[in-house]
Specification:
17% strand; single chain; alpha+beta
Length: 70
């Protein structure tokens, strides 16, 4: 499966979350670190769902850029 990950850059760190997996978040000091951590968080999140006997949430989020001429 392929999930959309949103990465946000803060003043001193990076954060990431997965819109299709509520509560699945990560924070790191660099973009590379937060991507590694969110991948691990997704895998852990899905393991928990599987262990509880639930079905995996199907990815359905998407992204797009909008150009603004200001």
């Amino acid at each position: 499966m392929r999930y959309l990950v949103v990465i946000e850059e803060g003043p001193t760190s990076f954060g990431a979350y997965v819109p299709d997996l509520p509560g699945c978040i990560a924070a790191g000091e660099s973009r590379e670190e937060v991507l590694q951590l969110i991948q691990e968080a997704i895998e852990f999140h899905l393991e928990e769902i599987k262990e509880k006997g639930y079905r995996f949430p199907q990815p359905h989020s998407s992204s797009a850029f909008v150009d603004i001429h200001a």
